[in-house]
Amino acid sequence: MPEWRLLSIVLAVLVLVIVVEMMRRRKLREKYAAMWLFVGLGVVLLGAVPGLPSWLAGLTGVQLAANFLFAVAAVVLLFVVLQLSSEVGHLEEEVRTTVEEIALLRCELEDARHELDKRLAAAEDRLQRS
User: What residues form the membrane-spanning segments (predicted)?
Assistant: First the structure.
């Protein structure tokens, strides 16, 4: 087995172990872990099956297996970026909504404080008159 294949298998297995450990410690959510597990298993498969990268390159019309692997890596990274961009947009919307709700609650709290101050002043006036 060529050294590059052994190295790719070892690195992919290491990534799989790290992803599983991060999931176990609740440091990585399942939806992201699934993507990394899929990538890790794909790398293990490409490294373990001799000729698979060349066969896939030929199947897709790419001349070199290395070019095919770089193209697949670029597509995977594109999907990762799209997923994370989608998450950032969703989180920005949640933050904006939360900030607006906090601002409204602060206004309501200030109104309640002013109303309470008025009632306390009126009660003090009534007590002083009595």
Answer: 6-23, 35-56, 62-82
